[in-house]
Each structure stands twice: as C-alpha cells, then as structure tokens.
Amino acid sequence: MKTAQIIKGIHHVTATVGNAQADYDFYTRLLGFRLVKKTVNFDNNQVYHFYYGTTEGAPGTIMTTFPYEGQGIRVGIPGTGQVSRTGFSAPSDSLLFWKQRLDEAGVATHLVERFGLVHLQFKDPSGLCLEIIGTDEDDRLPWNTEDIPLEMALRGIFNVSIVVKEFGPTRDFLQQEFGFQLIKDSENYTRFQAKEGGAGQYLDVIEDAQGERGKNGMGIVHHVAWKLDSEEELIQLRNRLVDELGFKATEVKDRKYFRSIYFRIPGGVLFEVATIPPGFTVDESTGTLGQHLQLPAWEEENRNRIEEVLAKVNW
User: Fold this and answer.
1) Could you give the residue ranges of the DSSP H alpha helices within the chain?
2) Quick one: which of 84, 154, 163, 244 is 20 to 30 A from 76 by CA?
3) So what CATH class is 9-309?
4) Which residues of 259-268 are buried (b: 16+ CB within 10 A; e: fewer)?
C-alpha cells in the first residue's frame, strides 16, 4: 500500500546532550522557547526528557533533549548517517538581534547564505549544531518572553539537515515513500519539502562521499521525527516499510503524547514517525505546560525514587 502522501512535515528533533541545567538555560532563557514538557526518558527513568517549543507545543516547533551527563555516555562523533544541523525560523529582520544576543552570551556565530536565505549558525552547550534562518513565510505564533520582543522570537523548526554518504538511495526513498519534492539543490546540498512546503516541512540532504559514519553520543541528534494524522496511518506506514519494503522498524510505541515507530532510512539516518494526537495537553493544561514532572503511568509508583536521582535543575 502506497503511503507517500501521509507525512505532514517535521514533528520534533531529539538530541543527546550533557548538563541538564545548561540545556534548560540555553533553550528557554537564551533562545526563548517554552519548556513544554518535563518528563523522563521512557527507556531510562534516571534521565530527563525535555520538550522545548512554543505556546501549545505544536508539532513542528519541538526540540527535545536527553541530558545524559553523569550516565557514562560518550561524546558523540559527527558524521554520515546523522542529522547534522537543526534550523529554527525567525523573521528575516531579526537576525541582527539574534547575532547580538548570542554574541553577548559568549556563543560564537557564523552567517551563511543558502537557497536565498540567511542562516545564523551556532552551537548549543553540548555542541549541537543549530541555526536560525531568517524568513518571512512563518506565521506560527512564538512563545512570549520578557526579554525577547515578540516580533523577534523564534517560531519553531524551519528545517533539518542530514548527512549521507550516497545521495541516490536517500533521494529515492524520500521521493517515493514519503512523497517529498526535490525543490532546490546547490553542489552537495539538496532541499526537499513535505506536502506544499513552508517552515517545518524542509529537509536538507548533504552528500559526503568521503565522510566517516558518525557515532551517537552527547552533542549528537538521535533522530528526527515526522508527523502524520493518526495511529491508523502510522500502522499503514509500518506495514508498508516492513511487509512490502523489508525495512526493520519498531513496533508502535506509546510515547504518551504521541504514538510512533522508528527505523533507519537508506543512508542510515534514524527517522521516527509520530502521530499528531493526543498532544501535550493530555496531562497538563495549556497554561501549566512544563511546570511539573510528568511520568508515564507505569512509572508513577517509582516517582519518589525517580525524583531523587534526576539531576537538580533551577527552574
């Protein structure tokens, strides 16, 4: 069964990072995102899982992190088969504001132009490669903070860049199975869009034929997640991948705020595909998102022990 038209764009990006306090401060206090949800890694309850986004935590605005400092996790090695950079969108006339803000915070920045847009590149405290893309096509409402003017604030994820050793198989999969359109290319960069395009629907593929395979660890994106409408569509996609194409994909996982599967695309990058519902208000109201530690039902009996071992963070 063909499922090429069901992917609606980016759902979230998830990265392995270091210190929890530094991570929280950087994404909320410096970049101005809202802490939409604080929970734990469902596969390791000694580690936080932070979800950063805008007011309601809409899919496509969400950057999520696992702060693994003190857990014996190595520093990752960038390379092929990985997400190399995550881009956030902001109004085109805000880049000077962001450059000055990051410079004052001691964060090194670098300006580049790609596909007609200016990208302000920098790294987070764990070494994740990020960028802010100046664009006037993003009308999503940002999270309102005291020290970032609303007209300058980040709107959410604009694009994700991945690196592969061989472009062809990745291109074919994205076009044939995800229904992505190839819209722009320049040297070894190629931009694809989901559906009709726009912020949160772009994927840049970088071909690096001489690159070494990257290794996951702190400072590396673990996966990029793509959104679709329902669990029924998710199951259809899994059946297509496993039964018809021979891919290895996980069973449908209950992540409380969405249902999802994981698999590696040709080129080795780990993709998650996640449902849009039920969303982050399933256990908190919009007004109180991120204020309390939320646990999956099976961990509630362990709450006291979990709270004791989690890193101490000044919220």
Assistant:
1) 20-24, 95-104, 167-177, 231-239, 303-309
2) 154
3) alpha beta
4) bbbbbebbbb
- Work out whether strand 82-90 and strand 156-164 pair parallel, antiparallel, or are unpaired: antiparallel
Burial group, residue 54, by CB count within 10 angstroms (0-12, 13-18, 19+): buried
**Could you state, in order of their start, the residue ranges of all structural domains in the chain?**
9-309
The tokens for 225 are 């997640």
Dmax (CA) for the chain in angstroms is 54
Asked if residues 60 and 227 have their Cβ atoms less than 8 Å apart, the reply is yes
Nearest to 76 by CA among 218, 181, 207: 218
| Distant-in-sequence, close-in-space partners of 299: CB < 8 Å, separation ≥ 6 | 40, 45, 306
Q: What number is the average pLDDT over the span 5-19?
A: 97
C-alpha distances out from residue 144 to 31, 130, 154, 239, Å: 11, 21, 10, 41
User: Cβ of 299: how many Cβ atoms within 10 Å?
Assistant: 15
Q: Which amino acid is at 116?
A: G
First and final C-alpha spacing in the chain:
47
* 3-class SS of residue 132: strand
The residues near 6 (Cβ < 8 Å, ≥ 6 apart) are 179, 228, 229, 233, 236, 237
Indicate the pTM of the whole model.
0.96
pLDDT at 3: 82
Query: What SS3 class is residue 20?
Result: helix
In this structure, what token pair is assigned to residue 26? 């950087």
Give the DSSP letter of residue 218. B
Q: What confidence tens digit (pLDDT) does each residue in 19-29 have?
A: 999 999 999 99
